[in-house]
């Protein structure tokens, strides 16, 4: 399990590398150093340091691009911007990659908080 942040590269109306924040299946939230205007159409890709790193982290050998649209952007405490993106085009491979990154982020957050991991039914997982 990796606690390091996962970068998302956004191109299109702007070119910026942000940090994955959360994914709920329809919306992706990225923290970036610059804002994205609502309505901006962006191409996105999960940026891995290396192909081996990508495979080790998500089980995939290469990142898969997907299309998003900025629906919200707000400045947060650290001076960066929280950009909420809605899915426009998302292949099955890209969805699986996002879900794998979201699972890693949730596991890292759970480990950091000391909370036991939970199964889908809400019961603690047995080791």
Please describe the structure with a list of short key phrases separated by commas or semicolons:
Thrombin, subunit H, about 130 residues, alpha+beta, 2 helices, about 25% helix, six-stranded antiparallel barrel, globular
What would you say this structure looks like, in words?
The protein is an alpha+beta fold. The chain has one domain: Thrombin, subunit H (Beta Barrel), CATH 2.40.10.220. Helices cover 24% and strands 36% of the residues. The protein has 2 helices and 6 strands. The protein has helices at residues 51-58, 92-113; strands spanning 7-12, 16-23, 27-32, 41-47, 66-75, 81-89. The chain has a 6-stranded antiparallel beta barrel with strand order 1-2-3-6-5-4. The longest helix is centred in the C-terminal third of the chain and has 22 residues, at 92-113.
What name does the CATH topology carry? Answer: Thrombin, subunit H
CA gyration radius, whole angstroms = 15 Å
Mean residue pLDDT: 81
- Output the number of helix runs: 2
Identify the CATH class.
Answer: Mainly Beta
Which structural class do you get from the secondary structure elements?
Answer: alpha+beta
**CATH homologous superfamily descriptor:** predicted glycosyltransferase like domains
The number of strands is 6
Q: Could you describe the largest sheet, including whether it forms a barrel?
A: 6 strands, antiparallel, barrel
CATH architecture: Beta Barrel
Shape descriptor reads globular
> What oligomerization state is this entry in?
single chain
Order of helices and strands: EEEEHEEH
Strand order of the largest sheet: 1-2-3-6-5-4
- The percent range for strand residues is 35-45%
User: What number of structural domains do the residues give?
Assistant: 1
